[in-house]
Design brief:
Order of helices and strands: HHHEEEEEHHH
Number of strands: 5
Radius of gyration: 26 Å
Largest sheet: 3 strands, antiparallel
Strand content: 5-15%
Number of domains: 2
Helix content: 55-70%
Strand order of the largest sheet: 3-4-5
Distance between the termini: 21 Å
Shape: elongated
Number of helices: 6
């Protein structure tokens, strides 16, 4: 059985998942004791052990996927400290809403010992709005921008090209997010049914038919 502590310590596990894990451990221990006393398990008992292992594998798969998503969000990003102006890769230490209402990563600069909020949103939905807002500003002041040096005009052109690619990327990410939410709802249902099923088996001391979600 895997070590639950690593998931608890990093806050990868929800309360109902923790309860399920503890119920699986309880029933496994009961059947291990039965095996020791009787010198083996009845075929029905073996099937129940398989169900317990199946529930355990479902839970661990969910926790590992959640852990990997959290780790991906904590990946170092090249960012510029507004105080010392040193640009380097830094790991996000938190996320907060900016004054414009966008969710952004917060970083700590080890050189000047300050924490700062990156101005770039850290999610597709806010990034899309941010790109749109910035594009509207450019359009509003296009006559002024015509007087900019060629190098800055080139940067603005690059921004517009990036925006087109980003809109396409947003559509792909939005669809992926929708699929992820549907998968998580399905798994939450499976966790709840598993937990209730094992809790009733613990209280009554007998097994019923496993819920559909875990077959």
């Amino acid at each position: 059985m895997p070590n639950l502590e690593k998931y608890v310590a990093e806050e990868y596990i929800k309360q109902d998942e923790k309860e399920l894990f503890e119920l699986i451990l309880y029933h496994r221990k009961q059947y291990e004791n039965t095996k020791t006393r009787q010198g083996g398990l009845h075929p029905d008992d073996i099937e129940i052990m398989k169900l317990l292992d199946q529930g355990n594998q479902l839970l661990i798969a969910i926790l590992e996927e959640r852990k990997n998503r959290i780790i991906a969000k904590q990946k170092p990003t090249r960012t510029n400290c507004p105080d010392c102006n040193i640009e380097k890769e830094r790991k996000p230490i938190a996320e907060e809403k900016s004054e414009h209402g966008y969710m952004c990563n917060k970083y700590r600069c080890d050189e000047c010992k300050i924490e700062y909020l990156d101005f770039r949103p850290n999610n597709a939905k806010d990034q899309f709005s941010w790109f749109q807002e910035f594009s509207d500003i450019l359009e509003k002041h296009k006559e002024v921008l015509e007087k900019f040096p060629d190098e800055q005009k080139k940067d603005l052109l690059t921004f517009k090209e990036q925006r087109k690619k980003f809109i396409k990327a947003c559509e792909v990410e939005e669809e992926a997010l929708k699929n992820l939410q549907q998968a998580e709802q399905k798994r939450d249902k499976a966790i709840a049914e598993w937990r209730d099923y094992l809790f009733i088996a613990k209280v009554k001391g007998q097994w019923g038919n496993p819920p559909t979600a875990i077959n």
